[in-house]
From TrEMBL:
Pfam families: ABC_tran (PF00005). Signal peptide: none annotated. Residues 21-253 form the ABC transporter domain. It comes from Bradyrhizobium canariense. Belongs to the ABC transporter superfamily. Transmembrane segments: none annotated. GO terms for molecular function: ATP binding; ATP hydrolysis activity. The lineage of its organism: Bacteria, Pseudomonadati, Pseudomonadota, Alphaproteobacteria, Hyphomicrobiales. InterPro entries: AAA+_ATPase, ABC_transporter-like_ATP-bd, ABC_transporter-like_CS, ABC_transporter_ATP-bind, P-loop_NTPase. The keyword Electron transport does not apply. This is NitT/TauT family transport system ATP-binding protein. It comes from the Bacteria.
C-alpha cells in the first residue's frame, strides 16, 4: 500500500527486525558440457531480516546471481537449506518480486498492460487491480506514459516499469539483480533515489546485487561482500549511516570509510566498479 512519506529519520541499527530469510550452508554446483563440476557457491550462510535492505557486492562470477536465483526459487541448491519465515523454500513464491538488469518488458503491450501482466495471467481484471497499477505508475512518475509502448521509453523509464511490475504482486521480498547496471550515471543516481523512496513507502525486504560499491553502501542496511568463485561470504558490513539518505550522503566521511573498507577486502587490484 502506498502511503505518504515520513519525515522521521531512521537511526543506524533501527532495521533490526526478526529474521525473515535464512540461508544455511548453501552450496551450488553445476555440471559443464565437458563433464567438469563447477562450484558456484560454497557454504553460504546469511540471515536477512524483515524489511531489511541487503546489498551484495563481489567480482564477476562469484555466484551473486546464482544466489538470487536460488532465493527466487528458479534454481535449486546442491546442499544446504533456504527458509522464508521458517518454511523451507521449494520453488517460486508468490510473495517474491524480481527485477533483472534488463527490464524484459513485452514490446507488444502498453506500459500499463506490462504492469498488469501477472494479474492478467491469473484472469484478474478487476478495477481495484487496475487502480493499483495506475497508482504504482503515478508513484514512479509514469502516469502520463501508461498507454505508451516500451520502445517509446528511455532505459531508465523501462526499469521503473519493471519495478512497478514487480511491486504489483505486493511482494514481501524484492530481489534485484543489477537493475541499474546498464544505465548512464545520471539515470542510475536518479533511480537509486527512487528505489530508496519506494522501499521506505512499501516496506520490503530487499536483496540487491550490484558491482558498484558506492551504490551498495548508499542503498543497503548491510553490505554482503562475496569472494571470487567458489562464492563465499567474505564479510558482512553494517552501514551505520542514518536514513533517509540522499545523493549528498556519498560526501559523508563515514560513507567514504565504509566504501574504503569494502575495497580493502578485495585488494587494490579487485575488478570492482567504484563509482555509480
Amino acid at each position: 500500500m502506498l502511503t505518504s512519506s515520513s519525515s522521521t529519520s531512521d537511526e543506524p541499527g533501527q532495521h533490526r527486525g526478526r529474521t525473515f530469510i535464512t540461508i544455511e550452508n548453501v552450496e551450488k554446483k553445476f555440471s559443464t558440457h565437458s563433464g567438469d563440476v563447477v562450484t558456484a557457491l560454497a557454504k553460504v550462510n546469511l540471515d536477512i531480516r524483515e524489511n531489511e535492505f541487503v546489498s551484495v557486492v563481489g567480482p564477476s562470477g562469484c555466484g551473486k546471481t546464482t544466489l538470487l536465483r536460488i532465493l527466487a526459487g528458479l534454481s535449486s541448491v546442491t546442499s544446504g537449506v533456504v527458509k522464508f519465515d521458517g518454511d523451507s523454500l521449494r520453488g517460486p513464491r508468490s510473495d517474491v518480486g524480481i527485477v533483472f538488469q534488463q527490464a524484459l518488458l513485452l514490446p507488444w503491450n502498453t506500459v500499463l498492460d506490462n504492469v498488469l501482466l501477472s494479474p492478467h495471467l491469473k484472469n484478474d481484471r478487476s478495477e481495484a487491480t487496475r487502480h493499483r497499477a495506475e497508482g504504482l505508475l503515478a508513484f514512479m512518475g509514469l502516469a502520463d506514459f501508461a498507454k505508451k509502448y516500451p520502445f517509446e521509453l528511455s532505459g531508465g523509464m523501462q526499469q521503473r516499469v519493471a519495478i512497478c511490475r514487480a511491486l504489483m504482486r505486493e511482494p514481501k521480498v524484492l530481489l534485484m539483480d543489477e537493475p541499474f547496471g546498464a544505465l548512464d550515471a545520471m539515470t542510475r543516481e536518479s533511480l537509486n533515489v527512487e528505489l530508496m523512496r519506494v522501499c521506505s513507502e512499501e516496506k520490503k525486504t530487499v536483496l540487491f546485487i550490484t558491482h558498484s560499491i558506492p551504490e551498495a553502501v548508499l542503498l543497503g542496511d548491510r553490505v554482503v561482500v562475496m569472494s571470487p568463485r567458489p562464492g563465499r561470504i567474505s564479510e558482512i558490513i553494517d552501514v551505520d549511516i542514518a536514513r533517509p539518505r540522499r545523493l549528498k550522503t556519498m560526501a559523508n566521511r563515514r560513507f567514504g570509510e565504509i566504501c574504503d573498507q569494502i575495497r580493502t577486502i578485495f585488494g587494490s587490484d579487485a575488478p570492482m566498479v567504484t563509482a555509480l
